[in-house]
Amino acid sequence: MKFDTLFQRIADLQNRVDVLNNSFNYTTQLERLGKIGSEIEKLERERLVLEKVVQPVNQVDKQLSEQRELLELAREEIDNDTANAVRQDLERLEQQFSALEINLFYGEMDARNAFLDIQSGTGGTEVEAQDWVDMLLRIYLRWAEQHGFAADMVHYSPGEVAGAKSVAIHVVGEYAYGWLRTEMGKHRLVRQSPFDSKNRRYTSFVQVSVVPEVDDNVEFEINPTDLRLDTYRATSAGGPHIQKSQSAIRITHLPTDIVVQCEQERSFHKNKAFAMKYLKAKLFDLKMQQRNDSQSTIENSQPDMNRIPPVRSYVLDKSYIEDLRTGLKTEEVWAVLAGDLDDFIKACLKSGL
Length: 353
Known about the structure:
Blueprint: H1 3-21, H2 24-77, H3 80-101, E1 114-120, H4 126-146, E2 150-158, E3 164-172, H5 176-180, E4 185-192, E5 201-212, E6 227-232, E7 248-253, E8 258-262, H6 268-292, E9 310-315, E10 320-323, E11 329-330, H7 333-337, H8 342-350
Parallel strand pairs: 4-9
Antiparallel strand pairs: 1-3, 1-5, 2-3, 4-5, 6-7, 7-8, 9-10, 10-11
Helix pairs in contact: 2-3
């Protein structure tokens, strides 16, 4: 066997392949193939979402046509038994469609996971507002658990006395963003303060923001020179898992003044990677908002919380909770505090919010 001859044939063919690889036409086709692959993946995800919405509705529509035909025959023959059967089937279909109705309100990004953060606001005292952050955090964690969603802490900045100055969680589950997006806004708490020796009534506010997680294949450039990175020691309640190194990270996007923090991992590099994913989600959401509002500017990305009306009031001393957008009101205070938010969320989605 002449090895040199075979090696030479391999080298000759490799040269021909390299020439083709380096040609402009081949490079363009290769790039286009990659883009087509990404587009196919996006279309496949969209197809699955649309099928989940459309197919069950079509099934109900088909059954309604069948029930209508049965009822017409029953009326012609004065068949009360068939009419009663149709009535029972209609009750079942009404319940079935009520369960499906929420799916009609999912938007382009609603099938994604979500980042939810809560910022302490004004009103009452500082400790009141920070305790309200902690209370609302527990509500969302319990809501996520009830839905079978994973909710991981991204960062937790504790208050000086109680509660938290700010928190962020990553909610992973089917339509997590679709469910949570109507929670965005200012939430008001009215109660007799457990921190006041005279038990006086206080009003406190927190701001909730929710953004969808963005896929890695979404093309969105972040200029490294626009970022300021700070490291710090992650805070915790102590115990064996307390952070002893500067592994937590805070990233500030200077043009927008958007700040993200991550302290969920012991590894600095993992925290940085996840913080960048969080920042990408916030900047992409801002870009989408600006696309929908031609008058918005990148410098005005942080709204003045004092000028924003509350979306929901938790009036604990009078035992009711009211959504100020839909008018839905409940006296089941403890159920809501235990995470039962679905009635409020569904009412918002059905009203087109």
